């Protein structure tokens, strides 16, 4: 299974979308089980040390539980992080959800460009935008998946340049379809 969910067709010009989700293999139950396991381990270690006479270990065990709880809460709040790139004949919308924050960007489809550039740490970035305003995409996926997303987006954006032609089916009906 791919670590990125892709929805859309490269040859569908009118209404297409691409959903980008990082691989989140830990479920809600998994996060809960992780917290319980870390809590039990910290309490057991703290209580054993306290019973052996090393009582100063117990506050550190409690601190470990608090930190584990904060990390599990962060994991839980970012389980549904995703990016949606939606296209129609005129516009491209980018909606990003990161935790509770949702950002929306809109670009004229005729002017939208994809750019690949290196970030400050040297890792490749994928940017989409126009007129000097660019939004970073697929930050939570690996380089190979980011390249696959870039190819799919390029195909979706290039579909606007392909001419429409009438296609005839065997029963004589005519439909306007894009040339694949």
Low-confidence stretches: 1-14, 163-180
CATH architecture of the largest domain: Roll
How many strands, which pairing sense, and closed or not: the largest β-sheet? 4 strands, antiparallel
Side-by-side strand order of the widest sheet: 1-2-3-4
Number of domains: 2
- Euclidean distance between termini CA atoms: 26 Å
- SSE ordering: EHHEEEEEEHEE
Looking at the structure, the CATH topology of the largest domain is: PH-domain like
Range of strand content:
25-35%
Question: Which structural class do the helices and strands define?
Answer: alpha+beta
Percent helix: 25-40%
Kindly state the number of beta strands. Answer: 9
Radius of gyration: 24 Å
CATH class identity of the largest domain? Mainly Beta
Question: Can you walk through the features of this model?
Answer:
This protein is an alpha+beta fold and 180 residues long. It has helices at 28-51, 57-77, 143-158; strands at 16-20, 82-87, 91-98, 101-108, 113-118, 124-130, 133-137, 164-168, 174-178. It folds into 2 domains: 16-23 and 81-162, PH-domain like, CATH 2.30.29; 28-77. It contains 3 helices and 9 strands; from the N terminus they run E-H-H-E-E-E-E-E-E-H-E-E. The strands form 3 sheets. A 4-stranded antiparallel sheet has the order 1-2-3-4, with helices on one face. The protein has a 3-stranded antiparallel sheet with strand order 5-6-7, with helices on one face. A two-stranded antiparallel sheet has the order 8-9. The longest helix is centred in the N-terminal third of the chain and has 24 residues, at 28-51.
């Amino acid at each position: 299974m791919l670590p990125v969910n892709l929805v859309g067709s490269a040859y569908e010009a009118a209404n297409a979308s691409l959903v980008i989700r990082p691989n989140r293999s830990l479920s809600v139950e998994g996060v809960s089980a992780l917290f319980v396991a870390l809590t039990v381990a910290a309490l057991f270690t703290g209580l054993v040390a306290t019973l052996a006479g090393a009582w100063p270990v117990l506050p550190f065990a409690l601190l470990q539980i608090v930190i584990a709880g904060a990390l599990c809460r962060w994991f839980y709040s970012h389980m549904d992080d995703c990016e949606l790139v939606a296209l129609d004949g005129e516009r491209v919308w980018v909606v990003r959800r990161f935790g509770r924050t949702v950002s929306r960007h809109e670009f004229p489809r005729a002017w939208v460009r994809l750019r690949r550039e290196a970030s400050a740490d040297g890792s490749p970035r994928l940017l989409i935008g126009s007129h000097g305003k660019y939004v970073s995409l697929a930050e939570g996926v690996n380089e190979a998946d980011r390249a696959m997303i870039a190819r799919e987006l390029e195909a979706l954006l290039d579909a606007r340049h392909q001419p429409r032609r009438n296609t005839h089916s065997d029963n004589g009906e005519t439909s306007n379809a894009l040339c694949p």
